[in-house]
Fold:
Amino acid sequence: METIFDHNVTPEELVRFVGPYSVEEAFSKGPAMYTNENDANYALGILFSMRGDKEKAQIYFDRIKNKRITNTIMARFSINISISQRLFVILQSNR
Structure:
């Protein structure tokens, strides 16, 4: 299964995807962070959106097989972003 780790994700980008993991844990887990193709394709779509490649992002969004779960994935991803960003700020301030 293709994941963001196949596309040289940077630590700065990865902070948006780590969920309950630290950036270091996420890098060590690598593709195992993703348990299904829908989540992996959604993350790839977000990655390429962040990089400004909207066409490539749309290719991955179109690969999400179960369109009904897209809203669930988006909601979960948004929550993870919020938590991850707050955690990143806290960790950076403790350095």
Observations:
- The CA atoms of residues 1 and 36 lie 8 Å apart.
- Residues 4-93 form one domain.
- The chain has a mean pLDDT of 78.
